[in-house]
Amino acid sequence: MLRIPATLMRGGTSKCVIFRAEDLAGHDIALDDILLSAFGSVDPSQVDGVGGATSTTSKAAVVSPSSQPGVDVEFLFAQVGIGDQVVEYGSNCGNCATAVGLHAIQTGLVTPRAGTTVVRMLNLNTGTLLTAAVATEHGAVPECGDALVPGSVSRTGVPVALGFVDPVGRTTGRLLPSGHAVDVVGALEVTFVDAGAPAMFIDAGGFGASTIEGAREAASELVSLRRQGAVRMGLVPPGAPTPDVIPKVGLVAPPTAYTTTSGRRVGADEYDVSVRMMSMFAPHPAIGLTSAVALAAAAVTPGTVPNRIVGGGVASTIRLGTAAGVVELGTRVDGAGVLREVVFQRVARRIATMELFVPCGGG
Amino acid sequence: MLRIPATLMRGGTSKCVIFRAEDLAGHDIALDDILLSAFGSVDPSQVDGVGGATSTTSKAAVVSPSSQPGVDVEFLFAQVGIGDQVVEYGSNCGNCATAVGLHAIQTGLVTPRAGTTVVRMLNLNTGTLLTAAVATEHGAVPECGDALVPGSVSRTGVPVALGFVDPVGRTTGRLLPSGHAVDVVGALEVTFVDAGAPAMFIDAGGFGASTIEGAREAASELVSLRRQGAVRMGLVPPGAPTPDVIPKVGLVAPPTAYTTTSGRRVGADEYDVSVRMMSMFAPHPAIGLTSAVALAAAAVTPGTVPNRIVGGGVASTIRLGTAAGVVELGTRVDGAGVLREVVFQRVARRIATMELFVPCGGG
User: Which UniProt keywords apply (chains A, B) (predicted)?
Assistant: First the structure.
């Protein structure tokens, strides 16, 4: 039985168990085995562990101080299996990154300053550099706050400004992998963009529906469009099997008044671009943060489908109208017109510090 | 923000957060508010708290040492709301009681002895006295073990023998509230019994089906039979509205070979009586411990429907064939033929010690 310190955090709409790398060292048990055992993953209920038996509550991050210049904290994100013995490290999680940022200040990995403390984080899954800015008045570390995020969690938490630094071209080397601001796929106008993640944004008007929800219902071919997009973006060779998660794919449209999934009415003047993303094969309830980075990058790039919708130009604030509500983000573009950072107003909260009792017999 | 120590335990097939009463004192915030806030109950997802968003993972117990003679530990069980602001204290929970017993030894509330340590527990919800016996070799406190329970959790834990002491007649004052070992309701033979909880056991043979599962499918009227039973047992006056949970109601039949819900084949010689209980309005996946106490009491009482099935007499071990598998229990009957204790072989495990950060603004 291992005894391992950990912290249970809420980040955005996820629950995340944060470990310090040093607390996982000193024995020869693989990280996968520790996580699966700690979470009770052998059972779909995760009743014998700290897992919450849903994808948003079976997440972990392993954090360590960084020796790299310009980086305070490195972290590895882990999506821990539920009812199986699989841990996935293939992607970053913006919700957990938010929690990691607040955790770094709360646990002294980063010393709070008077005013605002910025944590510079390197995500080891993707190589992405992120920042987390937290108000630390007179150097005090906050435990609670009045910030909210759109989605399923109605309780407030500590406001955290989460920034994605230099997000452009990390997968393909280019902002616009096809070389064009707009491509035509079938009869649809599409923008391919690589920022945060490879993504494709389809003009919902091409489906002939009067609302974006109507277009989404008509868009049963989004998955096949994703496969075509993967080839057009150079992510896979023609004819090769395409992954289920990239590129991110979504519909965009001009803002109209609508009602969120939680029943709140949103006016057309409350946001700048309407978006509905696919998550794997189902509609995403809101929008993933990496998809939002991609949409922001497209929106500040002249001539793209999203840029036309927001009225051209380079906006420093963009409001995305998602099914769950409005996600606001800030953009920072340098003198050469390159997008250097996309910043989200997010929420995190420390739920509990823990000492986990982890059976070592596997499972 | 309150900071409150707590322990996350697995008891049987439930997760239970155990508080010490002294850790909840010293401020004037109501217990309900602390629990609802700690669990994040305002949201159905409980993402901002330690709740697991299911009935079996949204449970708490408040424990304190007892000054009553013959009692080591008192505990109050709480079923914490999910997506609402309701905490229910109307019943005991055998799974949490198992966890409370092991927790008392692990935290020093009860000093371990060489050999076996018995914790005597008073459940404050129901006034039930329980015992938890844990093997403590050379006085060592166990953290892991190789015990399993039938149901949804496949990982082993510490074996705990959970005893229900003097369970007879606690609600109605009588073992057989109707005064008969067998009553006839409609065309069905029924035994009403008050031990552990008020319960009624219906002879499945009366439904004319060849298996107990077939009888359960035929038994759409179990809920209306429960209402009739509530009156016949004197729990409610005729014509009054009847509660949804008492009496417990189930079908019993002689053992036959069957396959459990997890796919394991069970032979007719592996158990003594087949049982299928209703939980509220749906089939219970196995059997609640208080229902099992009632069934044990009926089985050792001459002439009842369950006693006929087990072949008469007074068995010191009874094996119940439930949909999830076989639940074995022991009975202790005194010289006057009175059932003094029913003992189950259960499992508990400490998952984590915690310090909870509990927002005090409600919710």
Answer: Isomerase
